[in-house]
Amino acid sequence: MRLTEFHRNVLAEFGDVQGPWLVGSHVLTGFGVTAAEAIEAGADLREVWWALCRDNDVPPERWLGPDEAG
């Protein structure tokens, strides 16, 4: 996953206001840091995206993002 895809998924799932707020404020379960901090530290973007999905009860069928969902 590329950073542009990560951000596209965040905006599509959580919206223009809540999405960026979650990335910068929500401490991810399993990472112990925010998504922004995990990305800055070099974490796998797909794992960060999936952690956001898990923590926010996004149904698994939407974890692939808007372009890949069936």
Automatic annotation (TrEMBL):
A Pfam family per the record: DUF3046
Protein name as annotated: Signal transduction histidine kinase
Species of provenance: Corynebacterium sphenisci DSM 44792
